[in-house]
């Protein structure tokens, strides 16, 4: 009943770039970004080491997910456990690290590295919180990892992928118009081909930000790794000349203010990026699921080694089991 889906998936991101991937079908950690292959020059065993680590996480997640199921639902269905952890370097060298878990698509428990305690986001997490709060040695080790080792890897990854991660490509922006009901018209401002993802696009009426009647699309990825978005506003046609689409982006030398049928050119060109002034983050996400659990589910499976909930990884990373 697993519909061919892997029971365990692990991915590693640097900012919005997928760097590495593992699943319970492949059973091998592999690079997904071309620049991630550079790590092999410094550490030829990097992917072998990550494969073994992912295999251990997969086994540990199975036990954790089964424990949570026994403590709570004990009914047939699909259950998931997610672990997400990582670190970030922000402008001014501010450092941030985090580790958190989700159960069945909802927040479950998270680590506070300043107080070395865990915060339960659901009543079902209280048992786990008490167990983890008592493990001070593990909490200190996790804090050290998030504030030291994780940041060291982040800096290395930024060196490997500087060309892709720190590039700045300006948006191409165009404003068009279409007729709307009641004698009105809709202005549509489209921006595409930009990187990084962060962009500030607003309608301006005679220089002032205008939100009335404005609709916005999500900032979505293109196949080439850039992004696109849009926003529209419904207006009285006689006021058309008073509206401008205002766009600010790190790839632009200066903000754009465009009216109907105006289009920004691509002559601005990409601008080399810098670490300062931006957020660089490495995030690892693992997801496991148990499909159609029944009471005899433990039969046929060996017990996993020390669980993450109570040892090195806290809630046990991710896994899945099906009868």
From TrEMBL:
Pfam family, one: MHC_I
Transmembrane segments: 271-293
Subcellular compartments: Membrane
Membrane topology, from the record: Single-pass type I membrane protein
Positions in coiled-coil regions: none
UniProt cross-references to InterPro entries, sorted A to Z: Ig-like_dom, Ig-like_dom_sf, Ig-like_fold, Ig/MHC_CS, Ig_C1-set, MHC_class-I_related, MHC_I-like_Ag-recog, MHC_I-like_Ag-recog_sf
One example of a Gene Ontology biological process annotation: immune response
Domain (Ig-like): residue spans on this chain: 170-259
Keyword hit for Zinc-finger: no
Example of a GO cellular component annotation carried by this entry: MHC class I protein complex
Keyword Isomerase carried by entry: no
Keywords from the UniProt entry: Disulfide bond, Glycoprotein, Immunity, Membrane, MHC I, Signal, Transmembrane, Transmembrane helix
Family from the record: Belongs to the MHC class I family.
PANTHER family per the UniProt record, alphabetical: MAJOR HISTOCOMPATIBILITY COMPLEX CLASS I-RELATED GENE PROTEIN (PTHR16675:SF242), MHC CLASS I-RELATED (PTHR16675)
Protein's recorded name: MHC class I antigen
Biological source species: Tiliqua rugosa
Gene name of the encoded protein: Tiru-UB
């Amino acid at each position: 009943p697993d519909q061919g889906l892997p029971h365990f998936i692990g991915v590693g991101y640097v900012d919005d770039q997928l760097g590495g991937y593992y699943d319970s079908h492949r059973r091998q950690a592999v690079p997904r970004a071309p620049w991630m292959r550079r790590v092999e020059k410094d550490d030829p065993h990097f992917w072998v080491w990550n494969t073994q680590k992912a295999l251990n996480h997969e086994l540990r997640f199975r036990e954790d997910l089964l424990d949570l199921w026994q403590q709570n639902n004990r009914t047939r269905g699909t259950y998931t456990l997610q672990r997400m952890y990582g670190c970030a370097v922000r402008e001014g060298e501010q450092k941030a690290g985090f580790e958190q878990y989700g159960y069945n698509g909802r927040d479950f428990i998270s680590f506070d590295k300043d107080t070395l305690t865990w915060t339960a986001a659901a009543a079902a997490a209280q048992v786990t919180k008490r167990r983890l709060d008592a493990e001070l040695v593990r909490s200190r080790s996790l804090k050290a990892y998030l504030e030291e080792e994780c940041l060291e890897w982040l800096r290395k990854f930024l060196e490997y992928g500087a060309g892709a991660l720190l590039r700045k490509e300006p948006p191409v922006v165009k404003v068009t118009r279409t007729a709307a009901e009641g004698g009105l018209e809709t202005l549509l401002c489209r921006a595409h081909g930009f990187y990084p993802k962060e962009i500030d696009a607003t309608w301006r009426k005679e220089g002032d930000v205008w939100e009335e009647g404005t609709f916005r699309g999500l900032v979505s990825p293109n196949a080439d790794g850039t992004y696109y978005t849009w926003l529209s506003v419904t207006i009285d046609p006689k006021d058309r000349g008073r509206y401008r689409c205002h766009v600010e982006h790190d790839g632009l030398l200066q903000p754009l203010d465009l009216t109907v049928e105006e289009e920004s050119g691509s002559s601005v060109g990409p601008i080399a990026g810098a670490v300062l002034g931006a957020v660089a983050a490495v995030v690892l996400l693992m997801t496991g699921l148990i499909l159609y659990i029944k009471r005899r589910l433990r039969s046929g499976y060996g017990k996993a080694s020390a669980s993450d909930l109570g040892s090195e990884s806290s809630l046990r990373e991710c896994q899945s089991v099906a009868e």
